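Reading a protein record of the kind used here takes little practice once its layout is understood. The reader may check this reading against the record printed directly beneath this paragraph.
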Amino acid sequence: MDRMTPAFPASDGLEVTPEQTQQALADGTAIVVDVREQDERDAGHIDGSRHIPLQSLSAEAGSLPKDTTIVFQCRVGGRSAMAAQALRQAGFDAWSMAGGLLQWDAEGRGLVPEGGTVADH
């Protein structure tokens, strides 16, 4: 997907919903990056997401594609919003998943591994 065709053309601001995130992941129009700590991710995460802890993001930003929409997610949305804002300033099509993994899970969207949970931060 090229940057001329954004995954979320009608979205304002920095956030997209878990539903939009799930659809973009399924369609292959976005990648999802989990910015939580390793122990949080181990407890449960979105299938198909990539893991880059927030403190490693600046060092690993170069490994992310600038021509693909990126949705950051964390537990409730605070860390992912910081990540999305920072990467937007660096020229990425970056978004934060509203409500974080707590909202994703509350909507019954499922986590891996089977029986996965949303860990406390």
